[in-house]
Each structure stands twice: as structure tokens, then as C-alpha cells.
């Protein structure tokens, strides 16, 4: 790595991202599957360039005595490259499971790492990043940049700084009077008893918690095209069809039918005054839809309802940003205390009032869909067979699904964490979910 480039210190305040700082195993991953061998030294150089391009990935987090946070690259190491041997096609699941034992330490950094599962014909690369530094689309851009550097050793490094936009949200979508009063009161009450948890305490909490297990469902390019074409015929988006399939599949898993509220992530990059482009960061929000699968309607009628309601929500800025603004205004150490109250024996009367929002959230499921083709099959001599987005499991046993057709074929990953989300429930749901989509693709419904 160019030593001079690393001497430049990059810093910025961490506000909106602060709620993701202490999540249990709140790391997101991107799996890159190759059809050509990888030279380890070439990959090492590409990872070094990636560290320069995205300073946020090699950052660490500074906390003051009030729990306020900022990113800095000062005294933070570059991105590590860890080497494993790929024994079979599912090795990446085992490697990620082991990596979670050595979870990212935000205070020492860096906030990301690259894993090579080496194989003479079909190696895998896993980009493993703390969610505080990356949303799903950011991670896709990171994968793209890594492949560009790996395929072209002469490619110049472009530094892409992250964009902070918390002030913009507060200015454009300030809390209403009632919410502002309540937030100020909560902050004031908490300020009298504030408990600051150290990074060491969180590291111990992580090690005592269950790690994510993964279920992958893949479709061919032909099947993916058939689904996309059918959605166009029915005048709905693929995302609406996936949400509908999720609702349909929960009919055989009553354990997952917590409520009719379904959430999905939304990229807000193009809605910001300063478009972050291909920078790393949390440039996503989410909306919730009140949906219930109607037994009296067929699949596509249910999908049209989901499509109509989602369009209404996406057209409402308050639905996208008001909750974000409220979260920015809340004392960030309350999120830390909530995590400890949920996953340890920590008790506080005030925090108990909030704990149910994490321990028993009122959501029937969450979906993050990165959308259609964005990564080419060839980078110079490198052939890419698949790129798969792997989100973290949601706390409290909520169903979470990561989706994407990054290489033109639909991949779905269902992460789950026992005991809140039992293995047999995860398997039953995934089988029904896959069956529902297969029926949609191959038959009239």
C-alpha cells in the first residue's frame, strides 16, 4: 500500500450510523464467486488499493465521555486479507460463522476485512464489513471496486469520501413538536443515569451470543428472467412479488406471523442534496407496509396490493425520513443500553420501557433487495459466476431476507440466529418461500 496515502487522516462525525455501532454481529457480507484462480499477491495489492479508495473501511471509531462517536483513520490499520482453503461450495458459511467469533472491534478498527477462500478453479471472496460503515448498496460498490483493482494492477486509486447528511435530514424533516418534547424528556431523564458501556464489554457480549446461520436460495438466469417478465405482465415490481412470497410462506410458519407489518430497505442516495455516488456509508432508510396475505385472492392480486401500498409509502418523505430524524435526536447511549438490556442481565427501569421494541419487535419480516444486474461477468481475465448479498440476522427473531439479482440471477439469503429463530422454522419457511416463487415462475397463479 502507498504509505503516503495512509498518512492522510480522514475523519467525520458518526451520527445517523450510531444506532448500528453496537448491534450483535451487525456485520454485512458480500460473497463473490469466481471461475478463475486468484493470485494471492495480486489480491493483497487490490485490497490495499481498496483501503485507500474507501477510508471508512479502514477507520476506527472514537467515543467521547458522552458516547458520541466519530470515524477516524488515524492509527487505524489497513484492511486485512485472511486466507482460507475452500473445501466445498458451502465453505463460505462455515468461514463466516468462524469469523463472527473474531468480530470487528470498532474502537481499534478497521471496520472491514477481506476473506479469500482459495481454490484452484473456483475461489470465493467474502467482503466482511461492520454495518456502521456500509449499507448493502455500498458493499456492492466495494465489491465492484475490488474486482476492478484485481483485474487491472495499473488502475489508479480514486479516493471516495463518505458523505454525512444528518444535518440535512434534521433541517428538512425536523421532529414534530410532540416527538421533540418526548425525545428531549427521554434524553434528560437518561442523562441523569447514563451508563457508558465499554468496547470490551460489548466484545464479551458478542462472544456470549449466538452467531448467524445462513440459508441460500438461488435461481437461474432463465428463472430470474421469467419472474421479471411475469412481474411486468402483472404490473408489479419484483420486490412486490418477493414481499408477497414472504407473506405467503409465513402461512406455514405461524411462529413468524408476529404482525402484518413488513419492512423493507430503501436507498436514499439520489434523494440527498449531495449524492454520495459509490461511497461507503449508511445511505438507506426503510418503510413498513401493513400487509396481510388474503386467502381469497390469488398471488398476483396480493402482489398488486403490496405494490400499490409500497408506492404510496415511497412517495411520502415523512415515511422515509421521520423515524431517521427521531433516531438522530435520541441520546446514542440509549441504543447501547437497549442492546445490553435485551441480550444480557443488565437492568434499568427506564430502559425496560424501551426493551420490547428490540426484544419483541412488532414486525412480520424485513427485506433488503439490492435489485438487478450491476456486476459484469468478466473483469479482464477474471470471470465472475455470482455475487451474493448476505445481511445480518435481525434481533429478536424477526424474519430477515437479503435479495439481489446482481449477476442477472436471483439470490436470496435468509440469516437466522438461534434460539430466537429456530432451525426447523427457518428450514420450513425457506422451503415454502422457494416453492411459492417456483410456482409463480413456472405456473399461472
Descriptive account of the structure:
The structure is a single chain. This protein has 14 helices and 15 strands. It is an alpha+beta fold and 445 residues long. The chain folds into two domains: 3-151, Chloramphenicol Acetyltransferase (2-Layer Sandwich), CATH 3.30.559.10; 166-442, Chloramphenicol Acetyltransferase. A hairpin with a 5-residue loop joins strand 6 (112-118) and strand 7 (124-130). Helix 8 (221-233) crosses helix 14. The longest helix has 20 residues, at 423-442. Mean pLDDT is 89; it is low at 1-5.
Give helix % range: 25-40%
Range of strand content: 15-25%
Strands, total number = 15
Order of helices and strands: HEEHEEEHEEHHHHEHHEEHHHHEEEEEH
Low-confidence stretches are 1-5
Q: Order of strands across the widest beta sheet?
A: 5-6-7-2-13-12
Mean pLDDT: 89
Number of helices: 14
Compute the separation of the termini in Å: 55 Å
User: Which fold name is given in CATH as the topology of the largest domain?
Assistant: Chloramphenicol Acetyltransferase
Please give the largest β-sheet.
6 strands, mixed
Shape: globular
CATH superfamily of the largest domain: Nonribosomal peptide synthetase, condensation domain
Number of domains: 2
Class by helix and strand content? alpha+beta
User: Class of the largest domain in CATH?
Assistant: Alpha Beta
State the CATH architecture of the largest domain. Answer: 2-Layer Sandwich
Q: Mind telling me the C-alpha Rg? A: 22 Å
Sum up the structure in keywords.
2 domains, 15 strands, 19% strand, 14 helices, 445 residues, globular, disordered N terminus, 6-stranded mixed β-sheet, Chloramphenicol Acetyltransferase, single chain, alpha+beta
Amino acid at each position: 500500500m502507498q504509505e503516503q496515502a495512509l498518512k492522510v487522516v480522514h475523519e467525520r462525525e458518526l451520527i445517523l450510523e450510531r444506532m448500528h455501532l453496537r448491534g450483535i454481529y451487525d456485520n454485512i457480507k458480500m460473497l463473490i464467486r469466481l471461475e478463475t484462480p486468484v493470485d494471492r499477491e495480486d489480491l493483497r495489492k487490490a485490497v490495499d488499493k481498496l483501503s485507500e479508495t474507501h477510508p471508512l473501511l479502514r477507520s476506527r471509531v472514537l467515543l467521547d465521555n458522552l458516547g458520541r462517536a466519530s470515524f477516524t483513520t488515524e492509527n487505524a490499520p489497513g484492511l486485512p486479507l485472511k486466507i482460507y482453503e475452500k473445501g466445498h461450495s458451502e465453505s463460505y458459511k462455515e468461514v463466516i460463522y468462524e469469523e463472527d467469533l473474531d468480530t470487528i472491534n470498532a474502537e481499534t478498527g478497521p471496520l472491514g476485512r477481506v476473506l479469500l477462500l482459495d481454490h484452484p478453479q473456483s475461489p470465493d471472496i467474502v467482503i466482511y464489513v461492520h454495518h456502521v460503515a456500509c449499507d448493502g448498496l455500498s458493499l456492492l460498490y466495494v465489491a465492484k471496486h475490488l474486482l476492478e483493482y484485481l483485474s487491472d494492477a495499473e488502475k489508479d486509486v480514486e479516493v471516495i469520501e463518505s458523505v454525512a447528511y444528518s444535518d440535512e435530514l434534521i433541517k428538512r424533516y425536523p421532529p414534530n413538536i410532540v416527538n421533540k418534547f418526548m425525545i428531549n424528556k427521554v434524553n434528560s431523564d437518561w442523562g441523569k443515569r447514563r451508563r457508558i458501556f465499554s468496547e470490551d464489554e460489548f466484545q464479551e457480549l458478542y462472544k456470549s451470543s449466538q452467531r448467524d446461520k445462513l440459508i441460500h436460495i438461488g435461481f437461474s438466469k432463465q428463472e430470474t428472467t421469467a419472474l421479471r417478465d411475469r412481474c411486468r405482465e402483472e404490473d408489479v415490481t419484483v420486490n412486490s412479488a418477493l414481499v408477497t412470497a414472504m407473506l405467503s410462506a409465513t402461512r406455514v410458519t405461524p411462529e413468524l406471523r408476529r404482525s402484518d407489518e413488513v419492512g423493507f430497505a430503501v436507498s436514499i442516495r439520489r434523494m440527498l442534496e449531495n449524492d454520495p455516488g459509490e461511497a461507503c456509508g449508511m445511505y438507506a432508510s426503510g418503510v413498513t407496509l401493513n400487509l396481510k396475505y388474503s386467502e381469497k385472492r390469488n398471488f398476483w392480486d396480493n402482489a398488486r396490493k403490496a405494490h400499490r401500498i409500497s408506492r404510496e409509502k415511497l412517495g411520502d418523505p415523512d415515511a422515509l425520513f421521520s423515524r431517521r430524524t427521531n433516531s438522530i435526536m435520541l441520546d446514542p447511549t440509549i441504543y447501547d443500553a437497549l442492546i445490553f438490556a435485551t441480550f444480557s442481565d443488565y437492568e434499568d427501569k427506564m430502559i425496560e420501557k424501551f426493551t420490547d421494541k428490540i426484544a419483541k419487535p412488532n414486525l412480520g419480516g424485513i427485506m433488503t433487495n439490492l435489485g438487478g444486474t450491476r456486476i459484469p461477468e468478466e473483469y479482464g481475465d477474471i470471470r465472475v459466476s455470482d455475487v451474493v448479498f448476505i445481511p445480518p440476522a435481525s434481533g429478536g427473531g424477526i424474519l430477515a431476507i437479503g435479495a439481489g439479482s446482481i449477476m442477472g440471477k436471483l439470490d436470496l439469503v435468509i440469516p437466522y440466529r438461534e434460539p430466537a429463530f429456530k432451525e426447523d422454522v427457518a428450514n420450513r419457511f425457506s422451503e415454502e418461500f422457494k416453492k411459492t416463487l417456483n410456482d409463480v415462475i413456472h405456473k399461472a397463479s
